[in-house]
Amino acid sequence: MKRKTTKEILTESFRELAESKSIDRITVQEIVDNCDYSTATFYRHFRDKYDLIAWDYARKAEEIMAQLITDDTRWNQTLMDWAEFFQTEKEYLANLFLHTSGHDSFIQYMTEIHYRAFTKHLRAVSRRDELDEKTSLLARTYCLGTVYLSCEWITGKYDVTPDELAEIYGNALPQPLLELMKEK
Q: For 89-132, where are the alpha helices, taking DSSP H only?
């Protein structure tokens, strides 16, 4: 039986509060009161609630991308997993985007998480220790575009299904990156 870590419990407490409250109005004190921890415990694990949010998102991103590397999951399935994650977490993520003063910084952090996971995959499939600058820039451009599109979709700007969103992610992948991924 896997026991939950303190970080996981604090994150669950935050998410529980976010179900009924705007994220910008949730305080660290409310998070710890909700799970019977102290503020000292919170600050031993996170700098602030935005650090908690980023840790939670990075954990899920790693989980999705790790299966691509370890289970040889097809790229299209990974894109579908992302779209389904965004669909499942749509209300929570919309609360993040619409009700935090750190909206742009969270998008930048989200992009960096995706970029690190994606380039890790590219290095693994191409059996390279490092990517050249052009490939890195293509990967960053792809991540910037897909993250920003995801944010707009989550906040209701586009009315497409998760299947259609995953297809768009796939079609947006630059040809040189697609070829690199086929080198496996």
A: 90-98, 103-126
Give the residue carrying structure tokens 């992009």: 111
pTM of the full predicted structure? 0.81
CB 53 within 8 A of CB 106: yes
Asked if residue 91 and residue 116 are part of one domain, the reply reads yes
Non-local CB neighbours of 109 within 8 Å, separated by 6+ positions: 54, 57
Identify whether the C-beta of residue 83 lies closer than 8 Å to the C-beta of residue 166.
yes
Count of structural domains, the chain:
2
CA distance 56 to 113: 11
Please give the span between the terminal C-alpha atoms of the chain, in angstroms, as a whole number: 36
Whether 15 contacts 92, CB under 8 Å: yes
Q: For the chain, how many residues are written?
A: 184
The neighbour count for residue 104, using CB atoms within 10 Å, is 10
In a domain, 1, yes or no: no
Based on the fold, state whether residues 41 and 56 are members of the same structural domain.
no
pLDDT, one tens digit per residue, over 143-155 is: 999 999 999 999 8
- Give the Cα separation of 107 and 19 in Å (integer): 21
